Automatic annotation (TrEMBL), chain A:
Protein name listed in UniProt: ABC transporter permease
Subcellular location, record wording: Cell membrane
PROSITE patterns: ABC_TM1 (PS50928)
Subcellular location, principal: membrane
Automatic annotation (TrEMBL), chain B:
Protein name: ABC transporter ATP-binding protein
Topological type in the membrane: Peripheral membrane protein
Keyword Transport: yes
Keywords per UniProt: ATP-binding, Cell membrane, Membrane, Nucleotide-binding, Transport
PROSITE patterns for this protein: ABC_TRANSPORTER_1 (PS00211), ABC_TRANSPORTER_2 (PS50893)
Originating organism: Mesorhizobium waimense
One annotated GO molecular function: ATP binding
Length: 319, 582
């Protein structure tokens, strides 16, 4: 419990650090939000009009004053208003987030359901032909860029079977689950493919380590069957690296998958950030990055808590 | 009468061509019901492989039985050749008819499962018990190995128990289904000597209770004396001699058995101590090392802000002095603070309080200004495998700001020769050397700077017994030649007896008894020293019964600012002091 409080106490510090970096970085990019918003029409503005607009959006002040104002808003739960969408930043992000979260969860499920059994199987068939097969497949999975895979999937489906992935307006899970799944399953497979390959490789090597441990020999000396040795004695000990890897990958996925979202025309966090940067929508970029950083920290915390659940030797907060 | 187990002409090989790479060749023995066979040998003798072949666990380690037969009389009276048994047959036999315990209890239990679950598994597998029934059976099994408070301990995971407790849990697991054969593969090697005595006592008692047969594998022929009926001695994969216990111990016929019995250090209650002590001959020479009131404490932190709430008193007020040419052995069990003392003397941990002075003697020419060097326990881990021998030996010189000159090189060659390694070793790498040779290298490395004191932290503990004897001889020779003072940290009384002039017994961070080696070993005065010495297995006391004792070591954690009272000492003879018990 004290450990949890200590970890949560660090969150604001990290978030402030992240926000300062983003705040400064986005303002160092040439171009400003007014030009980006109005396009060529921005050239028609008189200097007075321009200044008035800048003052309206608050971008006439030095960056630290802007930062101070933004921070003040933040502690009141206000991330600012996005000029592009004309809505509070938090609302814009929360509209997009369910899709990203669902996609990340689906991809991870695919990765674990395919990757772990494949890795365990390969480990028990160490150096045999089937092990080699799994290892080659994993290597291919890891080295295929996901846009290639996405295009291949779309091409095969449309040219081979005349089926098109469900496009058009995204429908959330709670409105139309079937349509929602239809829209997300292919992107999830695309993202889950490389993820599964990594999971396979790491579970294989972790299992190989564990299978030569003394307690596995003990289990065998008690008369445990091969299946019980693998699933009951060895696998729980091999899970830590798998959890670590999954946590990191999942954290990345929560930050959005720009390319895959683009290809499958999905309005996720990835595309939101990309558009916000192109539009010089400062408030939105800051909000998104902060949100992504926050998610990452939450995932990391969950991973650490998972360690404790998996291995009684790990006690948190010990130095 | 069919024997319980009859192994004939067993050969086991490893690798892709097991026939060409046999590590056990033509081993035969028989074991009757209720009998105990001890298999004795050094590492690589094939003793463990022989044992693992009996329940065919050797298959999982990449081994294959290449010849011979292993006939087991099963519970129903039928006889099965285990070399040709199928895996389903074997899983029914393992645990139910053949139980096994291993060397390292710390790593032999599954770290993520509670010990209750692990013991209950045997009952699930072979007795068909489930849930509460299996747990109740597991509790009875723990009671049987005399673990106090068994019901609560069932919920513990292995990291919450000490090594001795874990080995009892292993025994409980192995004996859960009353196997008629127990294979014990060096079950006490990783344990302290008093804990070892406990485990041996337990095994002896359980054997009397159940009438099971046992195969006991060990490198320590002294340990065998208390428990075995028959002994088989193995060397290089072959059984060189076997017979009744007394016959092997009293009239060994094979040269190797004789060597094991005579050339190897055995504890003999202070009769084999050295007689070349320097202390009384040169009373006016100053000590090579003087330690005064050494205290090492480690903070215990707790709470949200990690405040220090107490301290582990690892070393608590230790004083001693060490004369040139003298060996002071510090003996104690794991956690007693003996290694921390050594590390504090070397400056590897910071002393909380206390002073040292180490003086380089003017008399001996070429003594270094940095007079203390060390040799550690594991020669496989304490040498860098990427460096050539020449670089390893040059390291202390370079580390102290010197340069590797022609003179350094000449010194390397001399020292290599002196420790008994060929001169041309200089350009070679570690993997070409055996454990004993590596420890000789470590000794040569320690001598590169002409130290006056060498700290030897369990320096021979990782070596095979016969190698141990030779390294000890070398150490004694070097001591005489260079007038070295040794601070010899060890848990092994037999080794200590061979090399120490004086002995300090350390318990719970404090020296409880210190004095002349012969006096301490032959007439120990402190209760702990007596217990420690009584626990050492010897050939002479071969029929003595081990007694069970479940007292716990006191906790070393004290509240912040706690200071123990001043020690009161009682003097026995000219050089033998004992701390009075509170």
């Amino acid at each position: 419990m004290t450990y949890l409080l200590r970890r949560l106490a660090v969150f604001p510090l990290v978030l402030i650090g992240v926000s300062i970096v983003v705040f400064v970085a986005i303002r160092m990019v040439p171009g400003d939000s007014i030009t980006a918003m109005l396009g060529t029409e921005a050239g028609l503005l008189t200097p007075q009009q321009r200044d008035a607009l800048a003052a309206y959006f608050g971008i006439d002040q030095p960056w630290f004053v802007q930062y101070g104002r933004w921070l003040l808003g933040l502690v009141q739960g206000n991330l600012g208003i996005s000029p592009t969408y004309g809505k509070p930043v938090l609302d814009v992000i929360l509209e997009r987030f369910p899709l990203t979260l669902e996609l990340a969860l689906l991809s991870m499920m695919i990765a674990l359901v395919v990757g772990m059994p494949a890795g365990v199987f390969a480990a028990t068939r160490n150096e045999r032909l089937s092990d080699l097969g799994v290892r080659i497949a994993a290597m291919i999975g890891q080295s295929t860029p996901n846009f290639v895979l996405a295009l291949l999937i779309i091409y095969t489906l449309s040219a081979g079977f005349g089926v098109l992935p469900a496009m058009g307006e995204f429908s959330p899970l709670w409105q139309d689950p079937l349509r929602n799944l239809g829209q997300l399953i292919l992107p999830a497979i695309t993202l889950g493919f490389a993820f599964a390959a990594s999971v396979t490789r790491i579970s294989r090597s972790a299992m190989l380590d564990v299978l030569s441990d003394d307690y596995v020999r003990t289990a065998r000396s008690k008369g445990a069957s091969a299946r019980s040795v693998i699933w009951r004695h060895a696998l729980p000990n091999a899970l830590i690296p798998v959890v670590t890897l999954s946590g990191i990958e999942f954290g990345y996925l929560l930050g959005g998958a720009v390319i895959v979202e683009q290809i499958y025309a999905l309005p996720g966090i990835g595309r939101l950030v990309l558009d916000a940067i192109l539009q010089r929508d400062y408030a939105l970029v800051q909000g998104c990055v902060l949100f992504i950083a926050f998610n990452f920290m939450i995932v990391n915390l969950l991973v650490d808590l998972a360690y404790v659940a998996l291995d009684p030797r790990i006690r948190l907060g010990e130095r | 009468m069919i024997p319980l187990l009859s192994v004939s002409d067993l050969s086991v090989g490893f690798g892709r061509k097991p026939e060409a790479n046999e590590v056990v060749r033509g081993v035969s023995f028989e074991l009757a019901d209720g009998e105990t066979l001890a298999i004795v040998g050094e590492s690589g003798s094939g003793k463990s492989v022989t044992a693992l072949s009996i329940n065919r666990l050797v298959d999982f380690g990449g081994g294959r039985i290449t010849g011979g037969s292993i006939r087991l009389k099963r519970a129903d009276g039928s006889v099965l050749d285990l070399t040709s048994a199928t895996e389903p047959q074997l899983t029914k036999i393992r645990g139910a008819e053949i139980g096994m315990i291993f060397q390292e209890p710390m790593t032999s239990l599954n770290p993520v499962l509670t010990i209750g679950t692990q013991i209950a598994e045997s009952f699930r597998l072979h007795r068909g018990l489930t849930g509460r029934q299996a747990m109740a059976a597991a509790k009875d099994a723990l009671d049987r190995v005399r673990i106090p408070d068994a019901a609560r301990r069932l919920k513990y995971t292995p990291n919450q128990l000490s090594g001795g407790m874990l080995q009892r849990v292993m025994i409980a697991t192995a004996l859960a289904c009353n196997p008629r054969l127990l294979i014990a593969d060096e079950p006490t090697t990783a344990l302290d000597v008093t804990v070892q005595a406990q485990i041996m006592a337990l095994l002896a008692e359980l054997k009397r209770e159940t009438g099971m047969s046992m195969i006991f594998i060990t490198h320590d022929i002294g340990l065998v004396a208390g428990i075995a009926d028959k002994v088989m001695v193995m060397q290089n994969g072959e059984a060189v001699e076997q017979g009744e216990l007394n016959q092997i111990l009293d009239q060994p016929r094979h040269a190797y058995t004789q060597h094991l019995l005579h050339a190897v250090p055995h504890f003999s209650s202070g009769r084999a101590t050295r007689s070349d002590g320097q202390r009384d001959k040169a009373p006016d020479a100053g000590p090579a090392l003087k330690v005064d009131g050494l205290v090492v404490r480690f903070p215990v932190k707790a709470g949200l802000l990690g405040r220090t709430t107490g301290a582990v008193h690892a070393v608590d007020g230790v004083d001693f002095d060490l004369m040139p040419g003298e060996t002071l052995a510090i003996v104690g069990e794991s956690g007693s603070g003996k290694s921390t003392t050594a590390r504090a003397v070397l400056g590897l941990v910071r002393a909380t309080r206390g002073s040292f002075s180490a003086s380089a003697r003017k008399a001996a020419s070429g003594q270094s200004a940095r007079p203390i060097q060390m040799v550690f326990q594991n020669p496989y881990a304490s040498l860098n495998p990427r460096l050539s021998i020449a670089s390893i030996l040059a390291e202390p010189v370079i580390a102290t700001g010197g340069r590797a000159t022609a003179e350094t090189r000449a010194k390397m060659t001399t020292l290599l020769k002196r420790v008994g390694l060929p001169e041309e070793s200089l350009e070679r790498y570690l993997h070409e050397f055996s454990g004993g040779q590596r420890q000789r290298l470590c000794i040569a490395r320690a001598l590169m700077l002409n130290p006056s004191v060498v700290v030897l932290d369990e320096a021979v503990s990782a070596l095979d017994v016969s190698v141990q004897a030779r390294v000890l001889e070398l150490l004694v020779d070097l001591q005489r030649e260079f007038g070295l003072a040794y601070l010899f940290i060890s848990h092994d009384m037999a080794v200590v007896e061979r090399i120490a002039h004086r002995i300090a017994v350390i318990y719970a961070g404090q020296i409880v008894e210190i004095g002349d080696a012969r006096s301490v070993l032959s007439a120990p005065k402190h209760a702990y020293t007596k217990k420690l010495i009584a626990a050492v297995p010897t050939i002479e006391r071969r029929r003595e019964r081990f007694e069970l004792d479940t007292r716990q070591v006191p906790s070393l954690v004290y509240p912040l600012g706690f200071e123990p009272g001043p020690a009161k000492w009682e003097q026995f003879g000219p050089d033998h002091r004992v701390r009075m018990e509170a």
